[in-house]
Amino acid sequence: MFSDFFYLGKITKQFGIKGELVVYLDTDEPEKYYQMKSVYLDIEGEPIPFSIEEIKIKSENQVVIKFEDITQEESAKYIGVELFLPLNMLPKLTGNKFYYHEVIDFEVVDESLGKLGYVKEILDYQQQAIFSIANPKGEILLPIVDKYILDVDRSKKCINVCAPEDLIALYIGQTDNE
After folding, report:
1. Distance between alpha carbon 23 and the CA centroid of its chain, in Å?
2. How far apart are CA 156 and CA 37, in angstroms?
């Protein structure tokens, strides 16, 4: 249902007496979303659009939102509800920055080991995001770290990396001129 949307954040609590809600924006650049006019809420697994009457900045990643159709009496039932926006609203990224969804199925090529496989999924753990790479010898897990990513070539659907050789060997065996 949400394949055409990206996760923006979550309603965390009520605020004041006007039906306002505190929203945590799960993004590195929350300021890009301070002027939103509407957002989609996950209501029973369906993306439902809600118009925004007003947004106030509470802290860098928190805003207070007054939705047009949510009253004080019903605002408590929205705590914990997730917010989404359509994928076409994502700002374009360039260079080695990328959205996780956009690099699925990209080929991963190591500068010394050659082709490692294809990005099967991104494992987004709190401590570290990780590429799950499908390799004929088995899955390779590679931390998404700037120093490992040399280049993201969107036109060729390829990510060039400099992975620690011993890390790759853990997953697919010996890497020295087998």
Report:
1. 17
2. 36
